[in-house]
Design a protein that fits this description.
This protein is of the alpha+beta class. It has 4 helices and 5 strands. A 5-stranded antiparallel β-sheet has the order 1-3-2-4-5. Strand 2 and strand 3 form a beta hairpin. Helix 3 runs antiparallel to helix 4. The longest helix has 13 residues.
């Protein structure tokens, strides 16, 4: 049995996700309504902010839906530090690029109320993923300029 996972940050860059999971398969692009993209967590490993979601009824987040195994989802739990409550895995409804909807897993950050600018290297993973998966031009422009939350 496979699981569906919505990536909106550095895991949109397929080589990065494959290094973490192995057998990823792209399903389609998608949009998560009711959240906005931000950098609310600081990662010692990268030395900068890392992607997260903040509830916002007037916003949306574009990303990529992947199909992964249940074990790979557990591996992502460890990588995303759910045991430390940095992120919580949550079931969400995504609008797909063919105007249907899917129930998928994603990671919602435990926002501290602070914002941290990402490193250039980390942001590049996100930008490459957005470009490779042809997210909307407007959203790619947003990702190029955001340094916290807007």
């Amino acid at each position: 049995m496979k699981e569906f996972y919505f990536a909106y940050g550095s895991n949109m860059f397929e080589p990065r996700l494959k290094a973490r999971c192995g057998s990823t398969e792209i399903v389609c692009r998608g949009v998560l309504d009711g959240y906005r993209f931000c950098y609310p967590l600081f990662a010692e490993m990268t030395g900068g902010g890392v992607a997260g979601l903040e509830p916002d009824d007037n916003s949306f987040v574009e990303g990529v839906i992947y199909q992964i195994t249940p074990q790979e989802l557990l591996d992502l739990d460890r990588i995303e530090r759910t045991h430390l409550q940095a992120y919580f895995r949550r079931r969400v409804t995504i609008r797909t690029d063919n105007n249907s909807s899917m129930q998928v897993w994603t990671y919602v950050s435990n926002n501290s109320g602070k914002l941290y600018p990402p490193t250039d290297e980390y942001r590049d993973f996100i930008l490459l993923g957005a470009e490779n998966h042809q997210l909307s031009e407007a959203y790619q422009k947003f990702l190029r300029v955001v340094s916290g939350c807007l």
